[in-house]
Amino acid sequence: MPQDYHATACVVRPIQRQELPLLLGLIRELAAFEHMADEVHVGEGELAALLFAPQPRVWALLAWQEERAVGYAMLSDHFSSFAGCFGMYLEDIYVRPEQRGSGVGQALLAHTARLAQTLGHERLDFQVLDWNTSAQAFYERSGASPLRQWIPYRLDREALQALAEGGQRGSNPSDA
Q1: Domain boundaries, the chain
Q2: What pTM was estimated for this model as a whole?
Q3: CA–CA separation, 109 vs 111, rounded Å?
Q4: Among 66, 68, 75, 65, which Cα is nearest to 14's?
Q5: What is residue 89's three-state secondary structure?
Q6: What is the DSSP letter of 35?
Q7: pLDDT tens-digit profile of 12-35?
Q8: CATH class of 5-170
Q9: At what angle do helices 44-51 and 20-33 cross, to 10 degrees?
Q10: Active site (catalytic) residues
């Protein structure tokens, strides 16, 4: 894991176990911002098991201004069969509204890039809500480009269970 990152705006560093309540609070703030507050089901125990596993596949970074946590990034591994390499997936990056525009987001993204390189990852992937044009502009200023040819899909918990049990919802058997 890279050392702490100091920017004029903040200090970014990996989360410590005693900071899990802060992280969970920031996750809830992001969910509320994205109009998805009722979708937060994770607790401190689940986060601890993931983030502090002997060989973690999930990482969290906190951004600090003085003694206050002002943002976070949540990351995980993924693999590209085409490139034959691991990449890092940026699940969340969140900066509290009053700190936006101060360099905190850029510091979090830069620390994320260093972490990805340290772990041997060759790329960083993420998604942006279609209505969040300020986030889109932020990522594009940072050198990211949208993958317009890809459409994200998801099997949620219920659909995953149904599929695992051999069922298909609303599909024609000839489609497969």
Answers
A1: 5-170
A2: 0.84
A3: 5
A4: 75
A5: strand
A6: T
A7: 999 999 999 999 999 999 999 999
A8: alpha beta
A9: 110
A10: 139
